[in-house]
Amino acid sequence: MSSPLAHLLYLLLLFLPLSALSQTHHNISLKSSLSTQDKNPSWLSPSGEFAFGFHPLPESNLFLLAIWFDKIPEKTIVWWANKDNPPLRKGSKVELTSSGLILNDHQGQEVWRAESSNGEAIASAVMRDNGSFVLMSPDSNITWESFSDPTDTILPTQVLRLGSELRSVLTETDYSKGRFSLRLQTDGNLVLYPTVLPSKDSIYSAYWASNTVGNGTQLVFNSSGRIHLTLRNGGPLDLARANGASITEFYQRATLDFDGVFRKYVRPKSQSNNGSWPMSWTAVYSLPENMCTMDFGNVGPGACGFNSYCKMDGNQRPSCNCPPGYSFQDPNNKYKGCKLDFSPQTCNQDGSEEDTQFVMTQLLNTDWKGSEYEIYRDVEEDECRKYCLNDCLCMAAAFSDGGCYKKRFPLSNGRMDSSTRHKILIKVSINNSSLPPPGVVGRKKDRSTLILAGSVLLGGSVFLNLMFLLAVLLLSFILHRRKIPEVNKNSIMLGKNLRCFTYKELEEATSGFKEELGSGAFGTVYRGSLALGDSADSATSVAIKKLEKVVEDGEKEFTTEVIAIGQTHHKNLVQLIGFCDEGPHRLLVYEFMSNGSLSSFLFGSLKPKWYQRLQIAFGIARGLTYLHEECSTQIIHCDIKPQNILLDDYFTARISDFGLAKLLKTDQTRTSTGIRGTRGYVAPEWFKKMPITAKVDVYSFGIMLLEIICCRKNVGLKAGNEEVEILSDWAYDCYREGKLDLLVENDEDAVMDGLRKLERLVKVAIWCVQEEPGLRPSMKKVTQMLEGAVDVSAPPDPSSFLSSLC
To answer: pTM of the predicted model, to two decimals?
Structure first.
């Protein structure tokens, strides 16, 4: 016998409208529609994580019919319809009919439709929780889905089949078809192509390929976050291994970005403990790693467009730059290349010496590959300059090892990288207004003011001139006095993103330096909260370090060093926000790292996942490469250890305390030997009065790499506390005896990843810890070896060099 509650529920269901019932099952019924004029013009997936509908484009009255992540502030788009046509205007409408999903523009004209692939009628549609929008037949079969018509992004559970492609957007805000394509060709080869704009199908030579012709079948982004190419013969070819970010806890996507790099991104689904969202998506994989060094062939604009050059920035992303005498064709789209800012040299035949109106300026480690038309051998640099100046067709010349390569206009496939050995000599006009003549760089507006004042003085009487001169001096004195307190006391911007704080501000921010986060060689760190944005109501967590035993070289030297540190910018460095230089107080303000130090992460009760540890190691290597080779001034850390590696919201490795060695007195140390560094990580040359170079950081990194591999400290006690066991010695013994599996015992992920990769990592670490500094590779070489770009030879016994001298 049924209960009264059951009868009540039955009656309620009878009175519910059909639309409410369909919404309960998240099915979209026939004749359902959305309009840009609706208050909420979208259909949600059951979990609400994805939305399908009209997405407004920023700073315009235009829309895309799109799919996006709906629960995060960015509302990141992962798919859009009508991709071959301009965005939609207000008044556009989409309607589900039995013949398909029909999109009409603001004038009521059909501009796009999705229809059944097999001719079946459409009965309903569903926005799924995996990010795919599907059309369903009356018997609930999928007759069309957005996953089969991708744009620039693939999502977990999505598959790209033979003949499919991802196409980049034009810019970050322009969803027109961009310059790059990722194609799984019908022959099974996965390739990255530059495309010829504005054509639809014309392409240049591929700059990356999987080399799986006849073998590749489909590109899979599986539910664990792994991206791989399925092969007919052999196992899958991994593009991006699962990085430990569960799809239940992290949003994930893989996008062919507008700069031509295929990146996998992750983002936490939940807010942090303080209720704020992390800043943005984090890229955990990039293909290719260095876009600027890719071979684009001899035809086409390359990575950045004609007459420009590509250079990796501090975030390891390609940036486009114009050479001297050139400027961007479109400042809003730097990938369109650069244009001349002066009239080029003409090819006169009357014997005039027009070449005297031009000079050659230079760029180091730069080349425009494929633009050369004439080559000279065994010449001097001055001869190379002269050959280009005297040739009206020559716009630039590359000089290297006695070779001179003349380049014609337009310059193509430009790159700037430390691996490029050429020096580029660029022809520019002497009268080019964009190039200041020698000695003028750095002059201020006040010079023009003085010139104007001088002209007035020359034209007046002696008395008036004297009065005018006194007034100018008085005004200059007042302005100078007004500027001094602004620089020393107020919280203004210094340099690019560096702020000067008062001691009182930082004391209030930390509630009297109450919450200590840790202490080390450079001082004590406290947690604080500062209003850093435009709104005074929104506070940001920061880490404030009180420096101890700072060098007493004066305020100017301290400020100069700190500003130099503040100008560094790399995704694997902790960013310096500002500083305090007030009386005896020297403090540094850093961004707060929510996941603490690598030491706590690595040596805690739970062993971190293998892939996550490797990504941390690679990140540290890239950060040190930046400090050693890519900063304007080389920075040697001198105290690389797990305690100085911090982890952000996404467990990305961020090097801290870099550049601080210059700020400390020479006796400030964590060891008992009067040297810089920490026991167990200190390079041998510290003890031998040898010159200290960047190789001391390489040694410390090698020790730390072994700790990351083995999840154990370099120096530890054996059973019974009888003697000290050195990890680096044990690792070399395991390598020499072919017992590398002992290093990762009980680490299933490491074993599954392959002993060959483990051997490469251990060999890199052993090279790093060689006692002779000259045998250690540079950090750039270390990074290349870790990533598999350079072969790793068999290393010698780390102590064999010094032993042979005894």
So the answer is: 0.57
